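Whether sequence alone determines local backbone shape is best considered at the level of individual chains. When preparing material for the folding task, we compiled for one chain both its residues and its backbone structure tokens. No coordinates are needed to read the tokens, only the vocabulary itself. For completeness, the protein is quoted in full, as a sequence line and a line of structure tokens:
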Amino acid sequence: MNAIPSLLWPMNRVSDALPLKGVHLWAWSLVRASFDLAAEARLLSPVELGRLRRFRFGADRVRFAISHATLRRILSGYLACAPDELLFSTNPYGRPYLAKPATQLSFNMSHTSDVAILGLTCAAELGVDVEMIRPIERDVAQTHFSSRELADLDSLSGPLWLEGFYNCWTRKEAILKAEGLGLNPPLAAFDVSLLPGSPPQLLNSLPSSRLTRAWKLVHLTPSHNTVGALAISSEPSLLSCYTFGS
């Protein structure tokens, strides 16, 4: 079993309404010292249970159950309903949204093997991505990144190269998730900043990227071994980051 990750955001429960033009970000661990799969599964819909059963490995079933049950717990706290009353649907590219109850709440979830994050707002479109920092082949960058991004990566080495890679990857993924187009637009059709310590920014985009907005980016560090990004259509007036405590 993986070690339980140490999350860096302060522990909280859903108790406050979202402020106007504000964003709440939640993180939670997908690794538990003890786990009741049946209890988590009781919160899931028949569609989610079908997806759960199709996982071949037990660890993947646990990860799916925790991430989706916790998503329901957090959303239900804002919407004053029971977690199992939420009804989800998806757009043509697979992005989930709330079909019931009717709400202006925009949300997006991402997870790695150990950590999940969720972004919520009522005032903008958003997307989030989180990745565990681990060694990766340089060919992945060559395949997916733009020439400008590759030039920035070539200026880095060792751990800084790895940090730059994940900065780039999560920012691009967050933008595509905010657009709600899945992975259909080519990742190399738009440039993001990636140098460690530099401000996260969407720098440029080609028409083939199909990007509809000049997305704002926020760098996220929910735990010591993860890096993430928030892409949002307008600058939030307030950004609050929490670790979810059930």
User: Anything to note?
Assistant: The first helix runs from residue 37 to 41. The two ends are 22 Å apart (CA to CA).
